[in-house]
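Incident log, structure service

09:12 report received: a user says their structure output differs between two submissions of the same chain.
09:20 pulled the input from the user's history:
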Amino acid sequence: MINGPDWSQKLRTEIGRAVIGQDAVIERMLVALLANGHVLLEGMPGLAKTLLIKSLGSALGVQFERVQFTPDLLPSDVVGTMIFSPKDGGFTTHKGPIFANLVLADEINRAPAKVQSALLEAMQERQVTIGGNSHQLPRPFFVMATQNPVEQEGTYPLPEAQTDRFLFKLLVDYPSAAEESQMMEMWGQVTKQPSVQAVSSGAELLELRVQVDAIHVAPTVQAYILALVRSSRDLAAQAEGGTAKRLLNFGASPRASLALFQAGRALAWLRGADYVSPALVQEIFHDALRHRVGLTYEAEAEGLTADKILDQVLIRTPVPAKV
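09:34 re-ran on a clean worker, output below:
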């Protein structure tokens, strides 16, 4: 039987042939795979977001498709369409790139809302509707999207209903000086580029989820998860003229509770633990909630971020003494 640390290490080693650093981001992406969740990567251009997702698909040995989102993209370019055949006078279904195990939605905020919404059914129900007929997507199925946080020209912010369907929103930061130096040595050879080989499979991933489901979550930890999520709603419910400033327009949805529960199990399994601890929940708390809360204008004017407000939620929520 495969254990979590060994599976994680072989994938991370293979991905490391092409991507330097970003260890925490890679681990979260593996957690999302095990928890059957989608991931939104946000970072400046040139931080290897696309390369990271592509390398993950290669190491996992699954079918990978990349969709470059642009303002002129159509929903049919993503999910597919019906094509008329002059020979028999009938229509045939042409399936789009969404019919893959791992779909990279590159620069997802560059496409208009009608294209972004084409992903909603796929992300939630793992199916798409073409010409009135529903088509099941392959198993496993993941959407991993990227977006640039600074460019506003020609971009369309994701609606809250769609961001809520991502398990994690991960922030990709600059590499360290040592990592950037190693990067130059690796990618400086034009004639010899690093390649990533398959060391796992989609079938293996589906089998590993059975082990993840066996990870124990104590009632006290479940109560802690609920208290954290509901605390974010309490911040949003504060009265306008009250003693405390209203920092959030809305708190996290029930999907946040499920995300912490499922991702906590997956992270515990990857670390070789057989139960979810409050420390593991705290570790993934920001990644699972930063895109599920809406800041007020007052909070933004004070320079607050979602992460800073979520820090307050962690501080004010009592940690269970026993697990």
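09:41 both user submissions now match this output. Likely a transient worker issue. Closing.
09:42 reviewer note: The two ends are 27 Å apart (CA to CA). The longest helix spans residues 219-237.
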